[in-house]
C-alpha cells in the first residue's frame, strides 16, 4: 500500500517511508492511497472475539502487502494486552474504556502499536532513530512507555511548562534511559509547531534520522480504527444504528473512526465532542475553517486551537462541508458543564468519568435529546479518572482512585531539560544526546 500527502505536492511513498518520515516532504500528512474495503459480513462473525483478534483482522487489511501476517499478529498481541470494557452508563449510552493500558490513556493504543511497527520497519538500519513528540499530557507518556529501552531509538518529548497535570508530568519525566523530556516555555500548540519544524529541518535531518510520534504519524492513526470495529462487534445484537461520540483535540481519534467508516463500518454518525476550543464546531456551522489560539480547560488534552488531523478529514470528505455535515456533528461544553456532568452521572449511576470522557458523554446525551429516532451512542472514555483526581475531587469529594500504574510513578524522581520556545535550543539538545554539535 502506498501513502500520499494531504498537500499533494510530493510523490506517494511506502509504509516504511510514511511511518519513519512522519510528515511528508511538502509538510502534508500521510494517508493510505486507498482505504481497504472491509465487508460487513466479516463483522457478523466476530461478535465473541477479543479486541486483539478484531485488531488483527483489521490490521491485516491495512498491512498485508507490507508486513508478514505473523509479524502483524505479534505486533497486535504485544500491543493490546489489556481489556477495552464497554459499559451501558445510561439507556442507549455506552462508554468504551480505552484507558486500561500502561499510562491509563487511549493514546497507549496508537503509541504501543506504532512503536512496535516502527522498530520492525527500522530493524535493518544502522543509524539511531530520534523520535520527537509534542504532548499536551497523555501522548508523551504513552510514547515513552511504548519506546522505553527499545534499542536504537531515542525519544524526545516536548511538553508545555505548567500546563500538564502533576501526575502527567511524572509520567513523562521519570523514565530515563533513552527517553528525554523537554519542558518548553510555551503552549501545547508551540510544542507541536516545534516538533513539526524539527521534522522539516534540513540541517538536522541531514545529520540525524528524525521522526515523529504525534498523532500526525499514520502508524498511530491506523490502530485507532481498530476499536471502532470492536465496539461495533460488541453491540451487534442491538439493532438500532450506532453513533460514536469522541472527545476531540487534535482529531486523531475521530479520524480513525471516520477511516473505519469509509472502510465499510456501518456507523450512522460521529459526534466531535469538544471543550470551548471549538474551531471545528464553527467550521461545521459556517463552512470556514479558522485556526485559533488554544484556551486552557479542565479537559487539557483537548485544548487545541488548530487540530492537526483536519487535513485528513478534509481529504476523506472530498473538501466538501456538506459531506462533513452528513457524517459529523459537533457539541462544545464549558468546564462548568463538564464538572456538572461528572457529578450527575456519578450520583445517578455511580460511574466515574474523567473530564475528557465527560465531554464525550455530554455530547452523546445532547445528540440523543435532539434526535427523534433511537440510536446506540458509544462515547469513548479516553483517560482513567485517577489521572485527573484534583478535578474529580471538586465534585466527588472522597474519590481517591490510584491504580497501580500511577502508584508506581508517584515516588520516582523527575528529570527533564528546560528550553525556551526556540527551535535552536531544542535542536542543539538533540544534537548533544546524539553526541554531535548542531
Ligand atoms: C489526546 C486525548 C484526547 C484527544 O484526542 P485527539 O486524537 O487529539 O482528538 C482526548 N482525551 C484524552 C484523555 C487524550 O489524551
Q: Which outline best applies?
A: globular
| Separate helix tally | 20
Helix content: 40-55%
Structural classification: alpha/beta
The beta-strand count equals 13
Q: List low-pLDDT spans.
A: none
Which small-molecule ligands are present, each listed once? pyridoxal-5'-phosphate
Biggest β-sheet description: 6 strands, mixed
Spatial strand arrangement across the major sheet:
3-4-12-9-10-11
> Which quaternary structure do these chains form?
single chain
Strand content is 15-25%
As a whole number of angstroms, the C-alpha radius of gyration is 20 Å
How widely separated are the two ends? 36 Å
Overall pLDDT confidence: 93
Nutshell version of this structure?
The chain is an alpha/beta fold. The protein has 20 helices and 13 strands.
Describe the model:
The protein is of the alpha/beta class and 438 residues long. Helices cover 44% and strands 15% of the residues. The protein contains 20 helices and 13 strands. The strands form 3 sheets. A 6-stranded mixed sheet has the order 3-4-12-9-10-11, with helices on both faces. It has a 5-stranded parallel sheet with strand order 8-5-6-7-13, with helices on both faces. It has a two-stranded antiparallel ribbon with strand order 1-2. A hairpin with a 2-residue loop joins strand 3 and strand 4. Helix 3 crosses helix 4 and helix 16 crosses helix 17 (355-369). The model has no long low-confidence stretch (mean pLDDT 93). The structure holds pyridoxal-5'-phosphate. Pyridoxal-5'-phosphate (PLP) is lined by residues 105, 107, 138, 215, 247-253, 301-302, 356, 382-383.
Amino acid at each position: 500500500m502506498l501513502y500520499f500527502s494531504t498537500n499533494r505536492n510530493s510523490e506517494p511513498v511506502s509504509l516504511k517511508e510514511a511511518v519513519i518520515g512522519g510528515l511528508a516532504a511538502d509538510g502534508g500528512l500521510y494517508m493510505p492511497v486507498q482505504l481497504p474495503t472491509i465487508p460487513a459480513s466479516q463483522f457478523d462473525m466476530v461478535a465473541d472475539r477479543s479486541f486483539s483478534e478484531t485488531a488483527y483482522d483489521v490490521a491485516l487489511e491495512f498491512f498485508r502487502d507490507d508486513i508478514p501476517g505473523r509479524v502483524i499478529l505479534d505486533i497486535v498481541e504485544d500491543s493490546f494486552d489489556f481489556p477495552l470494557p464497554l459499559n451501558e452508563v445510561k439507556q442507549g449510552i455506552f462508554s468504551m474504556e480505552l484507558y486500561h493500558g500502561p499510562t491509563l490513556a487511549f493514546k497507549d493504543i496508537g503509541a504501543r502499536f506504532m512503536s512496535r511497527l516502527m522498530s520492525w520497519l527500522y530493524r535493518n538500519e544502522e543509524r539511531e532513530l530520534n523520535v520527537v513528540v509534542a504532548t499536551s499530557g497523555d501522548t508523551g507518556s504513552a510514547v515513552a512507555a511504548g519506546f522505553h529501552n527499545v534499542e536504537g531509538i531515542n525519544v524526545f518529548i516536548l511538553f508545555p511548562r505548567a500546563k500538564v497535570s502533576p501526575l502527567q508530568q511524572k509520567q513523562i519525566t521519570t523514565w530515563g534511559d533513552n527517553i528525554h523530556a523537554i519542558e518548553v516555555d510555551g503552549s501545547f500548540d508551540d510544542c507541536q509547531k516545534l516538533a513539526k519544524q524539527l521534522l522539516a529541518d534540513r540541517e538536522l535531518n541531514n545529520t540525524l534520522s528524525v521522526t515523529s510520534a504525534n498523532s500526525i504519524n499514520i502508524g498511530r492513526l491506523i490502530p485507532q480504527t481498530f476499536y471502532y470495529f470492536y465496539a461495533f462487534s460488541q453491540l451487534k445484537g442491538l439493532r438500532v444504528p450506532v453513533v460514536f461520540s469522541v472527545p476531540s483535540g487534535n482529531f486523531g481519534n475521530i479520524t480513525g473512526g471516520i477511516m473505519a467508516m469509509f472502510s465499510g463500518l456501518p456507523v450512522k454518525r460521529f459526534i466531535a465532542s469538544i471543550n470551548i476550543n471549538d474551531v471545528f464546531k464553527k467550521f461545521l456551522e459556517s463552512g470556514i475553517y479558522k485556526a485559533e489560539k488554544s484556551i486552557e480547560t479542565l479537559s487539557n488534552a483537548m485544548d487545541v486551537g488548530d487540530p492537526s488531523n483536519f487535513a485528513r478529514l478534509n481529504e476523506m470528505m472530498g473538501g466538501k462541508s456538506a459531506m462533513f455535515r452528513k457524517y459529523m456533528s459537533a457539541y462544545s461544553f464549558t468546564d462548568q458543564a463538564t464538572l456538572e456532568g461528572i457529578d450527575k452521572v456519578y450520583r445517578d449511576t455511580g460511574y466515574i468519568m474523567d473530564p475528557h470522557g465527560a465531554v464525550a458523554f455530554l455530547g452523546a446525551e445532547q445528540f440523543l435529546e435532539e434526535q427523534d429516532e433511537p440510536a446506540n451512542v458509544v462515547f469513548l472514555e479516553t483517560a482513567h479518572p485517577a489521572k485527573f483526581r484534583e478535578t474529580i475531587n471538586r465534585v466527588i469529594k472522597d474519590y481517591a482512585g490510584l491504580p497501580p500504574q500511577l502508584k508506581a510513578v508517584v515516588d520516582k524522581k523527575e528529570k527533564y531539560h528546560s528550553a525556551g520556545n526556540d527551535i535552536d535550543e531544542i535542536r542543539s539538545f538533540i544534537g548533544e544526546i546524539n553526541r554531535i554539535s548542531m
